[in-house]
Automatic annotation (TrEMBL):
Signal peptide positions (record): none
GO BP, one annotated term: negative regulation of DNA-templated transcription
Name of the molecule in the record: Transcriptional repressor
Assembly with partners or alone: Homodimer.
InterPro entries: FUR, WH-like_DNA-bd_sf, WH_DNA-bd_sf
Gene Ontology MF: a single term: zinc ion binding
Length: 103
């Protein structure tokens, strides 16, 4: 099975899009999180790593990752869009703390 980075690079190539340094940083950061995440959490993590990638670039890359079948958007009771990894993950249920909104 191919890893997510390889799948993403192939997808970008098939769509005649570039594998930019920003996209590479975003995907590596996503997989370092190792959990469900929101776009704003990703932005905070990138800022902690001194990245100056624009918020719009993050959202565009998230859409590309969803379109490529690498991420899946999930909307929970808090009405925020979370993302989870698809490749290399088994189907699983989500238990949510209704008080603290943890997944």
């Amino acid at each position: 099975m191919k890893d997510s980075v390889s799948v993403f690079k192939e997808y970008l190539k098939s769509e005649k899009l570039k594998v930019t340094p920003e996209r590479q940083v975003i995907i590596k950061t996503i997989f370092s999180l190792g959990k469900h995440f929101e776009a704003d959490e990703l932005l905070v993590k990138l800022r902690q790593r001194k990245s100056k990638i624009a918020k719009a670039s993050i959202y565009r890359t998230l859409k590309l990752l969803v379109d490529a079948g690498i991420l899946r958007p999930v909307i929970f009771t808090d009405r925020h869009r979370h993302y989870e990894q698809v490749i290399g993950q088994k189907h699983h249920a989500h238990l949510i703390c209704l008080k603290l909104h943890f997944i």
